[in-house]
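User: Quick sanity check before I run a bigger batch. Here is a single chain. Can you write out its predicted 3D structure?
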Amino acid sequence: MIRKTLSASLLAALFLATPAFAEEATIGRPIEGGSLHEGHLDMVVYYVPVDGDLLEVTATFAPKTGGDPLRVVMALADDDSVAFSMPGHQGSLYAFSRSGEQVTVSTETEMDLRADATMR
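Assistant: Done. Predicted structure follows.
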């Protein structure tokens, strides 16, 4: 019985620490838009070329429960990547990466199995 409980606890701990990619969008041309809708925020993103070989990426995040949108503007050079969470929404990680003329945006959310484990 103890071994079975210990195994279940270890398995649950592994899942708690494991992030899951929920959604991804790739944009291949200037002004072409992409969107992500997983988690508590909806996001739309596009880019325009600026200053030589930089791409200016604009992402707008809108809370699904209402409230003011949040906007992030960043310049990405070829092979740049960045990841961050939005204030008040630390459970979701947004990643932006550039390869040539393509910008890929993804959202990663941590699996919350604690609620599921307490329900059992």
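Residues 3-19, 112-118 have pLDDT under 50 and may be disordered.

User: Great, the batch can go ahead then.
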